[in-house]
Design goal:
By secondary structure, the protein is α+β, with helices and mostly antiparallel strands. It has one domain: CNF1/YfiH-like putative cysteine hydrolases. The chain has helices spanning 3-13, 21-24, 55-69, 152-156, 159-171, 195-204, 223-233, 258-261; strands at 29-33, 76-77, 87-89, 111-114, 120-125, 129-135, 144-150, 179-182, 192-193, 212-215, 218-221, 241-243, 268-274. The strands form three sheets. It has a six-stranded mixed beta sheet with strand order 3-4-7-6-8-12. A four-stranded mixed beta sheet has the order 1-13-5-2, with no helix packed on it. Strand 10 and strand 11 form a beta hairpin. The chain is globular and about 45 Å long. Bound molecules: zinc ion. Residues 187, 189-190, 247, 249-250 line the site of zinc ion (ZN). The site of zinc ion (ZN) has 6 residues, from loops.
Length: 276
């Protein structure tokens, strides 16, 4: 790595990783979200590798952000995100899979879960909702974590609920003990959707009409409300679900937004790990 570039980037990100107060209350877990910072690196702090993005720059940005969050960038574990509801269990051997450019992927799926120290779960976002989950564990079982990517398709497929169920069966997690953080995502203020999206949601979640609203002539979909409700329906307690309350699309460019900046914009990351 060109140290000059990393050194130049560090002051910009020093205090800028977003953290959840709720998740920060659990010892032994490091987490944080990267964001968009104009002038950081060659693409405003982008950490995504997909074309047309500059992979070497994105790897440098991953390293810069990792040092801020307090995790080892060489141990990042990422999946190929496909807007589905598959949940991938990440093992200690997976640490580093997908960290550097062209270093593979854990699998195809939008939810990563783990109860092993070592791998740093890393999901990529540009409007799609980032969800981090923590099972603090108890005297019988250790802690467990999850990182989830939920756009409208994943939400319709209940990727949040599937992740909680997977943590129950894999780790013995109890939903009422889980802590959740819903990070910045496109808000209903900016997320006008077509009737295809509205109908898919209504068919999948007949109870979820509150996540749809009429805004002028169009329909708006509230990803945050939809996912928070899905978490409650699978047993999470409302006071254990923290919401960032930030819209990626109208927050003044502090986040990458597919809707407001176009498909070639960068990606920010949600990061979580069990500390070694
Ligand atoms: Zn907005």
């Amino acid at each position: 790595m060109r140290l000059s570039s990393l050194e130049a980037a560090l002051p910009l990100v020093e205090t800028r990783a977003l953290r959840s107060a709720l998740l920060s209350s659990v010892p032994g877990i490091a987490h944080g979200l990267t964001r968009r910072i104009p002038g950081m690196g060659r693409a405003d702090g982008n950490v995504g590798y997909g074309p047309p993005r500059d992979k070497e720059d994105a790897w440098e940005m991953r390293q810069a952000w990792a040092s801020v969050v307090g995790v080892d960038p060489a141990r990042l574990a990422t999946a190929g995100q496909v807007h589905g509801n598959a949940v991938l269990r990440v093992r200690s051997d997976d640490a580093g899979v997908g960290a550097r450019p062209d270093s593979g992927r854990v699998g195809l799926g939008d939810a990563l879960i783990s109860n092993e120290a070592g791998p740093v779960l890393f999901s990529l976002h540009a409007d799609c909702l980032p969800l981090l989950l923590v099972d603090p564990g108890d005297h019988r079982r250790g802690p467990a974590i999850a990182a989830v990517h939920a756009g409208w398709r994943g939400t319709v497929a209940d990727v949040a609920g599937e992740t909680v169920r997977a943590m129950q069966s894999a780790f013995g997690s109890r939903p009422e003990e889980l802590l959740a953080y819903i990070g910045p995502a496109i808000g209903a203020c900016c997320y006008e959707v077509g009737s295809d999206v509205a109908e898919a949601w209504q068919a999948a979640a007949p109870w979820g009409t509150q996540a749809l609203s009429r805004d002028g002539g169009g329909l708006a979909f509230d990803l945050v409300r939809a996912n928070a409700t899905q978490l409650e329906r699978v047993g999470l307690l409302p006071h254990r679900i923290e919401q960032a309350g930030v819209c990626t699309s109208c927050s003044g460019g502090a986040w990458f937004s597919h809707r407001s900046q176009g498909p070639t914009t960068g990606r920010f990351a949600a990061i979580i790990t069990l500390e070694v």
